[in-house]
Structure formats: structure tokens, C-alpha cells
Input
Amino acid sequence: MATRSTSRSKSPKRPKARKADGTLEQLCASKEIVVTCGSGGVGKTTTAAALAAMAAAHLGGKVLVLTVDPAKRLATALGLEEFGNVETRVPEELFTAAGVEPQGELWAAMLDTKQSWDELVRTHAPDDGTREAILANPLYQNITGKFVQSHDYIAMERLYEIHASGRYDLIVVDTPPTRNAIDFLEAPERMADFFSSRLLRWLIAPYKSRLYNAASKPFYLIADRILGSQFLADIAEFFILFQTMYAGFVERAEAVKRTLQDPRTTFMVVTTLDAAPAREAEFFIDALESRRLDLGALVLNKVLPEYFINRGATGVARRLASDPAAVAVELPAELGDPALVERVLREVGESFLNYRVVATREAETRAELSRQPEIVASVPFFESDIYDLAGLLRLGEQIWR
Amino acid sequence: MTGDDRELLDRRLLFVTGKGGVGKTSIAASLALLASQQGRRTLVCEIDAKGDLADAFESGPLTFSPRELAPNLLGMAMDTEQSLREYLKLQLRVPMLGRIGPLARTFDFVADAAPGVKEILTVGKLCYEVRERTYDLIVVDASATGHVIGQLAAPQAINELVKVGRVRDQTRWMVDILSDPAQTAAVIVSAPEEMPVSETLELAGRLKAETDVRLAAVMVNKVLPELFGRAEEEVFHALQRPVTTAVLADAVGSSVDQVGPVLDAAQLAVTLRRTRAGHLTRLRDELSGDVPLMYVPYLFTRAHGVRSTRAMAEALAAEIGY
Output
């Protein structure tokens, strides 16, 4: 296995007014984990895959892209029938076919929440009986399968597990499309809090000891009236079982948290310049900062070309839109019917002006967002979708250097 | 499809959902505005309190208590803890609410521990307002794809999990409201891009399989205009030839450097439109035939906020057939 130095210690945090002068190549060379975050629909998964592909191609070592909800097309692009919970190597021929001699290996895996939870239970359950009882519990199924929070936690947990195994030189993680953008950052902590909470013990107490705490009575009265006592007993049973794994869980959650805070871990915020995702990106940037997590890079996706805010071009477009007839008569007759030519010229001019409105708005958003991180990369509006590894690498080239 | 989808807003409860980034909130806001403009007393409710809905009306933060956004239009943000308080007060007539102590902590616990509690408090509040007939229409800026299934399926799921108790009685009438297509429906907002189309198809399938809520329409947002017909496109290609571009530059009294980007921009617009048309075709082909498909044009607007909400409401009115 090719190795590259990961011992390079990170220089102490530079003062705030940093210049955007680093590259994603440098970032990937100096980190072991890149956590990709951003709101849904901004091309987060594709960007994560493109970055991992570039790292495998140019930096060497073993690179893993750990994704949450990949498009079928992404799996196809990576030459995999479909992603599974098991890490799978992306065939080297795909790189060769794309005209790249890869320095390292690219691996991919998808996060299967249910399977990951089951594995976690298997790791932490004290005995076979408890393990089977938990796995068979209908509430367990519900919680692991449906709770958003459980997705958040398990993503970070899985990341920790893979990182600790030392199997990879670089792991690029795509985060779940969280409802609340910072959920997954707090997930390990909340999970630990939850298992150590007094309320949990409080609720379980009567089922454990039959000793009702007088203070807890009103709670049970209400809970009984709302939920029915059988259901409440089911919950309690589930948590009594789960509590046997308490120590292991809390310890793990702490370790996951430390991994996220480790200087070898960095975060990459991905966004488009649309108002809503951009606002969420800003929120993310602040959230990372307040948690003292490393914001390594900001990637702006689907950015309109700069020519839209070019003054000269705008003048031309205005002329075409406002007086296409005067321009049409100056053009060679063989172009076609003057009325037709006129219509084309007007469309060309108006279309430019339409997109210019959007490009102007985007430029402002961009200026707002770009103040913070060290590395800002932007990806142009690709004219077609990405269907293969070559496409991913093409995207990667845009942000790499 | 134009002209025969008027019953869309004649329901009482409309869940607007879709993948992140497709403009779900903008569509929900515009639908609500349109309904209120037509004289319906309308409530628009944001489920994920991210503040996007408040932005669409430039109203300042929304709270659990509705506030007026426009004539006939009120807005609120869902808050499950408040919903529980209201429920305890109204339904159970729990007298010692003040003495329960730290309800918030208890609530957090119950909500985290018991599956579906947050979901049921969300849907329960909405169904309650439907039952009380406080509004003619409630438009819900619902959770994104995936979570919304959990919410809509919650009453039924709880019905199955909880065999006895107050909750079971409560969920029955919710199921009645949710499963009545004359009262309740879902709208999926999509966009002519690969992932949104895939998720729309998947969500449409899951809505049918896992919930009792009728899918009333799929609205494709951000549909780009067709720039050229076939004849126009030929002229355009001719203009792109360097010789002709140079003549064009002379004709507008400019240089090739400045005319070039304008032609490139038109080319980009044409290509984007074409790529997206492919995704639209897939959506049309694979979506069940009885679900109306509506198109909302991409709005090249300077700003977000109430002006673009109004513009979109106009576009929706045209598409729905008002």
C-alpha cells in the first residue's frame, strides 16, 4: 500500500483575516478526514466523490469516499453496481479509461443506517441474550430505521470506526441531508447525554425496582394517559436493555467527538449561490467556528460564468434585446429571413440579461460567503450531468488547484 | 396541464414536500398566498424552523402562534413542545400544567425515546386545526423527502404500536382526516434535474405505499424557457461562426470579445434547457398517469422575498388555471 506522510503537524490556527490562497490538493494532502457538509441538492455527494477521486489519482494512498445517499448514477460512475455497507474498491481500469494513471486506490462505501446500528449493538451488547433481545425489539427497529438523529449519529460513528482501523490514508465523508444543519455535529454528544440522562434512569426506575419515586408520579400519570401503560413498559424494557451498553456507548460517543475535533479532520462546506443553501452554508460556517472545528474549504457549486457581469457584454445584450431589427439589417442576407434573425437576436439578448440578474445576485452572495475560509473553490455550471469517473475527475480538476 | 386543477386549493390540508434545493418553501408560500388572494382564510405552516418561510414573506421569525402575513393569510412555525402543551391543555384538560415541573426536559425525553411522538404532535396540531375549521386551507411547508413519510404515517404507525390509551383514540380521527382526499393531499415539488426527479418518483411511490395521503400534484419548479425553435437554432449556429460573429460585432458597434460571451451565454441556456428536458421526460414517463404534472417557470428575479413570492403566485395561478 502506498503511504504518504500524515505526520505533518498542523500549524497553529492562523489569525481570522485569512487569504483564500490554499488549495484543496494541499488540504487533502495534510488531512485524514474531510467531512463534506451543506444543504440538500447542492451537489454535495458528487463533490465529495470528485474530491476523493482526485486524491486517489494524484496523491496516492488509499482513499475512501463514504457516502450516505448516492444517486444510482454515482454508483455507476464509480463502476459499482450499487453501493453497500461494505467498502468496495473502484476498478483501476476506470481511471485508465479516463486517461489518468492513478497514484493510489479509490474505495467507496455507502452508509446503511440499519446495518450499522446492528453492528454497533453486536459490538457493545454484553451477552448474546441482550443482543438478540435488542435486535428483535420493535422499538429498536423504529428508532434505528426512522429517526433522523440516529442517522446523524451512526454516520459519525461509522466514520470513527473506519478511521480508527487505519485502513485509509484519506476518508471523504458525505453527511446526511440533515434537517437541522448542525445535528450531526452534536449527535455523538447528544447520544451520550441521552444515555446518561437522569430522566432515562427515572423512567426506567419503577420497572427495575418497583419502587416508585414520589416525585415521578405526575409524570407517569400523564405519560400513562397519553401513551398507555403497555407502550410505556415497552419503552422502558427497551432502554433497560440498551443501558447495558451504556458505558461502551458513552465512551464511543466521546471518541467520535474527539475524532471530529482532531486537527487531522477538516470540514468542507458545499453550497450553490442560491439564497437558501447559501444561508445554510453561512450557518454551517458559524457552527463549525463556534465548535472550534476546522473549516478547511468552501466549494461553490453550479456557479454561472463571470462573463454575465461583464459590462461590455451586457451592453451588447441590451442592444440586441432592445433593437434587434437595426442589428439584423446589418447582417448577411443568407442568414435567413430578417424577421427570424431578429427574433434570434432578441432571444439571445434577453436570455443574457435574464441570467445576468441571477449572476449579479450570486456575485453578492459569493462575496458574503468567501470572507471566511482559507480555501474557496468554485465549480462552473456544468452543461451536462456527470456519468462516469472521467466526469468526476473533470469536476475535480475545477476545484483541485 | 392547465385549467383543470382548480380543486387543488379546495382542500383543507395541503402538504408541500420535495427534495432540498428545489424551492419547496417558495412554492408553499406562493400557493398559500394565491389561496389567500382568492379569499380563502389560509394558514401556512413551516415544519422545519429554518426561517425560509419567514423570508418568503419578509415577515420576521414565525412562531407557534400564527401571525398575519397578508390579508387572509396567517403564518406559523411548528414547535412540537408547544404543540404538546396545547394538546395537554385542550384534550386532556390536565389541570396542573404549571406543576408538572420541567415539561421541556420531560418532553425531550419522551420525544427522543418514543418513536413518532414528534411526528404525531406535528401532524396532530395540523389535523386539529382542520377539525376546528379555523381556516379554509392550511398549506404545510413540510419536511423534505423522507421525513415527510414518517410524519404522514405517524398516526397509523402509532395506532399499530399503541394498543390502548388516549393516544390511540386520538390517532383515529387524524387518520380519518389524512386519508380523505377531499380534505388532505400532498404536493411534491421537483426540479428538472436528475436527483430531484429520482426522489420525486421514489416519494410518489412511498406516499402511495406507506401513507393514506393522496398525491394531488407534482410541481416542477425552475423550468427554463425554450430559447429557439428549429429554424431559430440554425440561425443561431450561423451566428456562432467566427466570420458571422465578427460581422455581428460590427453591427452592434462592439468587439468579438464582448459579443462572444453573449453568444456563449445563449449556448449555455440552450444546453441547460436541453439537459433538463431529458429529466422532465423521465418524470413524465415514469410518474403514474393520474397525477397532474405542473410546471413553474424559472424566475429570473433580482431578489428573494415577498416580491418573488408574488411573482411565483402569479405563475402558479396561470398553471393551475385561475
